[in-house]
Amino acid sequence: MVGDGGCCCGTNIVNVRRIKIDGNEVGIVGIYELFKRYYKDGKNPEKVNGEEILKNIGEMNCISENKEDEYKRALMREYKRYCKDKEDGRIPKLLKK
Description:
- By secondary structure, this protein is an alpha+beta fold.
- The protein has a domain at 31-95.
- It is built from three helices and two strands; from the N terminus they run E-E-H-H-H.
- Strands 1-2 form a two-stranded antiparallel ribbon.
- The protein starts with 15 loop residues before the first strand and ends in a 10-residue tail after the last helix.
């Protein structure tokens, strides 16, 4: 299992955003903050992979091993969408609740 599902954020406030994974809506803690950091650091979707995103997201979310591939695909899809929205001057869909 990726991550232990625990979250000790201290003074850092993180958002929970819902994305579709394997046909189900799942709340992901810290996804917006991670994508924002990647984008700011110049990590376009070609420079990052699902494994890296999963590892980072797994630090604050409990992810079942038998769903890791589905999470990787969904996280990459959402990061590509986030980047496209930013490049097109739109508010990323992850900001919309």
